[in-house]
Amino acid sequence: MSKEGISSYFQWLKSEYGFSEEKVRPYAFNPQPFLANKQSAMQGYVTSEPFAGGKKRRVQAGDILLADYGSTPIRR
C-alpha cells in the first residue's frame, strides 16, 4: 500500500473491514504475494490488477471502489 493510502483511505478500511496496520506491506507493483494468499488484499488500479489477478487465480477478484463510498480523487 502506498504511504498516501495508509494515511487516507486505509483508516476507513480499518474501521469498515477490520484491516490491520501490522499486516500492511509497501505497494511494489507485484501481485504475486496477493495471488499466493486468498486472505489478502491489494491496492491496485481497477483497469489493471483485477484482470491480471483473476486470470492467474482463475477467479474474479473482488473490488472495493473507494468512489462508491464517497471518496474523491485528490487533484494536484
Figure out the total of helices: 4
Low-confidence stretches: none
Q: Beta fraction of the residues?
A: under 5%
Q: Per the principal axes of the C-alpha atoms, what is the gross shape?
A: globular
Helical content, roughly?
25-40%
Task: Write the H/E string, N to C.
Answer: HHHH
Evaluate the radius of gyration. 13 Å
Largest sheet: none
The chain-level mean pLDDT equals 75
Number of strands: 0
End-to-end C-alpha gap: 20 Å
* Class of secondary structure makeup: mainly alpha
What does this protein structure show overall?
This protein is an all-alpha fold and 76 residues long. It is 37% helix and 0% strand. The longest helix has 9 residues. The two termini are 20 Å apart. The model has no long low-confidence stretch (mean pLDDT 75).
Annotate the secondary structure layout.
Layout (H helix, E strand, L loop, with lengths): L2 H5 L1 H9 L14 H5 L12 H9 L19
Short description:
This protein is an all-alpha fold. Helix content is 37%, strand content 0%.
Which descriptors apply to this entry?
single chain; mainly alpha; 4 helices; 76 residues
